[in-house]
Hints:
Helices cover 38% and strands 21% of the residues. It is of the alpha/beta class.
Amino acid sequence: MPEILSQLVNDYALRFSSPTDDLLVEVEQFTKENHHDPGMLSGPLQGKFLEIFSRIIQPEAILEIGTFTGYSALCMAKGLKENGELHTIELRENEVRIAKNFFAKSLQRAQIILHHGNALEIIPTIKKEWDLIFIDADKTGYIDYYELTLPLLKKNGIILVDNVLFHGQVLEEEIRGKNAKAIQAFNDHVSKDERVSQVIMTVRDGLMLIIKK
Ligand SMILES: C[S@@+](CC[C@H](N)C(=O)[O-])C[C@H]1O[C@@H](n2cnc3c(N)ncnc32)[C@H](O)[C@@H]1O
């Protein structure tokens, strides 16, 4: 699928953004060499954004839906308060195994809790109020994840949502793919929701930033 952000712009932005640490370089390299769909990983630019954003808000509790190989969780965990926790949920066993190994190498390892299973079933079992939620799993589940987690988000808490431009497919006159349709339905859903304010940032594949009023 074509990416909508030009490679030149991306390379330029990367060149003038702070470099990632060795562990993130290892996660990215491992994922590229060993996973059939490495494009799912947030990558250095979005990862640095997630890290700096998390450092700004200094969350006590972060929820991530869709761990994959652990890249974005490692980035966001850097901003946690000293006693803070990041909970991340992954459906697939293979990804859980990979992420677990990488989390064990992180300075924040004691603060990262990895859950294996379907996010829709796991979320209600974690008794926490969240400062920051990152929705980045199956696109057809986005509205359900949003509705399930918004009541658990603190006032002025933030939900970040990945892939809201879905490789540009939401810009097409007739949106065809199942996932692109699901993303469009999600964007419509949030835009009508009086409980929040939101902005779509044209970083990578589109990142929506939602604040709970
Ligand atoms: C786009 S990847 C996440 C990428 C990761 N957040 C990052 O930036 O590196 C989406 C992940 O969500 C997982 N996933 C899909 N459906 C899920 C569900 N119902 N519950 C939990 N995880 C799910 C997939 O197995 C996949 O690893």
